[in-house]
Design goal:
Number of strands of chain A: 5
CATH superfamily of chain B: Hotdog Thioesterase
CATH class of chain A: Alpha Beta
Structural class of chain B: alpha+beta
Order of helices and strands of chain B: EHHEEEE
Strand content of chain A: 35-45%
Largest sheet of chain B: 5 strands, antiparallel
Largest sheet of chain A: 5 strands, antiparallel
Number of domains of chain A: 1
Largest interface: A-B, 29 and 28 residues
CATH architecture of chain B: Roll
Oligomer: heterodimer
Strand content of chain B: 35-45%
Number of helices of chain A: 3
Number of strands of chain B: 5
Radius of gyration of chain B: 16 Å
Strand order of the largest sheet of chain A: 1-3-4-5-2
Distance between the termini of chain B: 32 Å
CATH superfamily of chain A: Hotdog Thioesterase
Chain lengths: 139, 122
């Protein structure tokens, strides 16, 4: 697929990710961010949070994965040039059952050599990233 | 703040980071990987005792990456951090940091992090 086949406002993917406490431990080990609010319920509650929350950068990493999987699946030969997010609400991850993060990507801007996607990211009915944007530049 | 000494982004660290996010490990540095280098680099600014930041009161508010080049596992990069602004809002602080990531060819990425620092309740 080439960028010219996209249109502004079009929803190009909706991807759901299951997130468990074990995922957060693995991310903490891989990233070096060992803040206990992402692993320990007592520490999270002491910080005024309802329960353990995902690292904002973990959620942002899942958004990057959704963008990459869409681009690869659609055969778009492009590199990520810009990627941003504002962390609006925490992703709460209960010990029992974990959480679901749903990433929806829409075309926000488009020209001959690049596409900017706006992602809406929800978990448990809350908009957790507002906004998240990614610009892909054609190779 | 002078740049950090160059650090090599090891293939092992890239693999572990990619696996933690469920990304295919294709040898490229995952988009959000750089935070694991830039935040520790910026901490050198913040951990200054004259500045006195209490990490238990810090929340990550905003994050942006601009990538000028695709980095691959094995790259050696240096980080140069600056405080772009500190704004006080209703007794809390918003701290905006920028870290330039350079490799042997020059600027490879810019990484902006905004931290929300809750005011002292006392």
């Amino acid at each position: 697929m080439s960028l010219s086949e996209l249109s502004v406002g079009e929803t190009v993917f909706t991807t759901a990710f299951a997130v468990t406490r074990a995922d957060l431990v693995a991310y903490a080990d891989a990233s070096g961010d060992q803040n206990p609010i992402h692993q320990d319920e007592a520490a999270a509650k002491a910080a005024g949070l309802p329960d353990v929350i995902a690292h904002g950068m973990y959620t942002m990493g899942l958004v990057a994965r959704a963008v990459r999987e869409w681009a690869n699946g659609a055969g778009i030969d492009a590199t990520l040039a810009d990627f941003s997010a504002r962390f609006a609400k925490p992703v709460v991850v209960p010990a029992d059952g974990g959480a679901e993060v749903v990433v929806e990507g829409k075309v926000r801007k488009l020209d001959a050599t690049s596409v900017e996607l706006a992602m809406t990211v929800h978990s448990a009915g809350e908009k957790v990233l507002a906004p998240a944007r990614a610009t892909l530049a054609a190779k | 703040m002078p740049p950090t000494e160059p650090v090599v982004i090891t293939p092992d660290s890239v693999t572990r980071f990619a696996q933690a996010l469920g990304l295919d490990d294709d040898g490229t540095v995952p988009p959000t990987f750089l935070i694991s280098l830039t935040l520790p680099a910026a901490e050198r600014l913040i951990d200054d005792p004259d500045f006195g930041l209490d990490w238990s009161r810090v929340l990550h508010r905003e994050q942006r990456f601009a990538y000028h080049r695709e980095l691959r596992a094995g790259a050696a990069v240096s980080c140069t951090s600056t405080i772009e602004s500190i704004k006080s809002v209703a007794g809390n602080d918003l701290l905006a940091l920028r870290t330039d990531v350079t490799d042997g060819e020059g600027l490879a990425a810019e990484v902006w992090t905004t931290l929300f620092v809750a005011g002292d309740p006392a």
